[in-house]
Specification:
The chain is α/β, with parallel strands linked by helices. The protein has helices at residues 10-23, 35-41, 48-57, 95-106, and strands spanning 28-29, 63-66, 73-82, 92-93, 110-118, 124-130, 137-138. Helices cover 29% and strands 24% of the residues. The strands form 2 sheets. Strands 1-2-3-5-6 form a 5-stranded mixed beta sheet. It has a two-stranded parallel ribbon with strand order 4-7. The longest helix is centred in the first third of the chain and has 14 residues, at 10-23.
């Protein structure tokens, strides 16, 4: 029998994103949604620079939410961790991802960091944090990292 909490990498992260979606009714997971349909649907809420940003970085964003009564658009970076691991260790993020979300904040998007902690017996917790460098650490560069201006 395999234990999901012992795996590292993409699959655990994807599962964490889907778990986050279970907890929020209006979250849009970018991996499951056509960007053109969403950008066209929310066209009047988006500034031109925001449209270009979403077109460019759609696959780098984990999730987003358009607040219906407000003009607020929230972008989410979701990190999945094992709950039994020491909470002192901050989740890792590539410099590329860090730069993308900083650019998003400059364009008027609200950015949040979501931590999914996997517990025993199928339990999990969701923690929502402000996107702030004190809540994560920059990982060493990866082979496919790009520079974001």
């Amino acid at each position: 029998m395999e234990n999901l909490k012992l795996f590292y990498g993409t699959y655990k992260g994807l599962i964490g994103e889907y778990m986050f979606r279970l907890t929020r009714k209006f979250i849009i997971l970018t991996k499951l949604t056509d960007k053109d349909r969403i950008i066209n649907y929310f066209n009047e809420k988006l500034k031109e620079e925001q449209k270009i940003f979403l077109e460019t970085y759609w696959h780098s964003i984990d999730a987003l939410e358009f607040k219906r009564n407000e003009q607020e658009i929230i972008l989410y970076e979701v990190k999945t961790k094992n709950a039994y691991k020491n909470k002192i260790f901050k989740p890792k993020m590539t410099l590329h991802t860090h730069n993308i979300y900083n650019k998003a904040q400059g364009l008027g998007f609200v950015v949040k960091l979501i931590l999914i902690r996997l517990h025993n017996n199928w339990n999990f917790e969701v923690e929502e944090l402000e996107f702030n460098k004190e809540h994560y650490q920059i990982d060493s560069p990866k082979r496919f990292d790009k520079v974001v201006s």
